[in-house]
UniProtKB/TrEMBL annotation:
It comes from Colwellia psychrerythraea (strain 34H / ATCC BAA-681). This is Dienelactone hydrolase domain-containing protein. Residues 53-239 form the Dienelactone hydrolase domain. Transmembrane segments: none annotated. The keyword Hydrolase applies. GO terms for molecular function: carboxylic ester hydrolase activity; serine-type endopeptidase activity. The keyword Hydrolase applies. PROSITE patterns: PRO_ENDOPEP_SER. Keywords: Hydrolase. GO terms for biological process: proteolysis.
Length: 297
């Protein structure tokens, strides 16, 4: 009897260890990346997550937060990307600037944070475990704008480096700015595909601005960009913290006003499913069972 109990205990310990190991398939590092411009230099902090189950160079995705700063959103996507065999590098754009985030405590324009994104791309492209030709980017709100800007040669040619992102995802990126405000030209693409996801209840922007932006592109440029609009989604539907009302001067077509940030768990899983499908297809990776779970939520 005691022998049987001992065997059961050993089996339970083994199973617990196995489950723990399978839940932690990723090596996590906290790093700083030097950012150098003609005017100044600084260090941008980042979390690097590299799946452990590969001996060859693997693809990677840079994760760019919203005006709120680093929150649950990035980790929500990082876990699924890692589980699909993709490394992630999530930047903290505010930390190096000693900013708290939010509409009153961020840089004046997204373009000011482009050097951080360029530095992140260069860092990954030179990393021994990363395939430099399979590096993507996903951004949310502010970060979504950066993801779209880096899809254009207008900005990528400024780096003076040969590296380009292989694919771009932008969530709720204020499409009204593009091809309207100076410095937000959305054309002359690098040739990498772009996926834009937005919500029909997003009162930061209008639900029709992203589809209209793509419709007004040339037929050639339209071939690079796809848009998905979720009917029941507010701004930041995949930010899983409680609902939050903010006042932002960029909202309501630049007139300013209140914006609802409201999580929608079902839409969050659906949008994550599309993100993983986009990148695994782009990087020629096998379909992940983890992602099929997202699609069934």
């Amino acid at each position: 009897m005691l022998k049987k109990m001992f065997l059961v205990i050993l089996l339970l310990l083994f199973c617990q260890g196995f489950v723990y190991a399978t839940k932690l398939p990723t090596r996590i590092s906290y790093i700083t990346i030097p950012v150098v411009t003609p005017a100044q230099s600084w260090q941008v902090s980042a979390q690097l997550r590299v799946p452990r189950n590969s001996d060859s160079a693997i693809p990677a995705v840079v994760i760019l937060h919203s005006s709120a700063g680093v929150d649950s959103t990035g980790a929500f996507y990082a876990r699924a990307l890692n589980h699909s065999g993709i490394a992630t590098l999530e930047l903290d754009l505010w930390g190096a600037r000693d900013l708290a985030g939010g509409s009153e405590n961020r840089p004046e324009s997204p373009q000011e944070t482009l050097p951080d994104v360029f530095a992140a791309l260069a860092y990954l492209a030179q990393h021994p475990n990363i395939d430099k030709d399979r590096i993507g980017v996903i951004g949310f709100s502010w970060g979504g704008i950066l993801s779209m800007l880096t899809a254009t040669e207008q900005y990528m040619s400024m780096t003076g480096l040969p590296y380009r992102f292989a694919g771009h995802v932008a969530h709720y990126p204020l499409c009204w700015l593009f091809n309207f405000a100076p410095g937000f030209e959305f054309d002359n693409f690098t040739g990498a595909p772009v996926l834009i996801q937005t919500g029909a209840k997003d009162d930061y922007d209008l639900p029709e601005t992203c589809p209209a932006l793509v419709d007004n592109l040339s037929e050639h440029d339209q071939s690079f960009v796809k848009v998905k609009v979720y009917k029941r989604a507010f701004h930041a539907w995949d930010r899983l913290e409680p609902k939050w009302i903010v006042d932002d001067p960029f909202s309501h077509l630049g007139q300013g006003g209140l914006v609802t940030l409201a999580p929608n768990i079902r839409v969050a899983y659906k949008s994550r499913y599309r993100v993983i499908k986009f990148f695994t297809g782009l990087f020629n990776l096998q379909k992940s069972k983890y992602n099929e779970h997202d699609n069934n939520e």
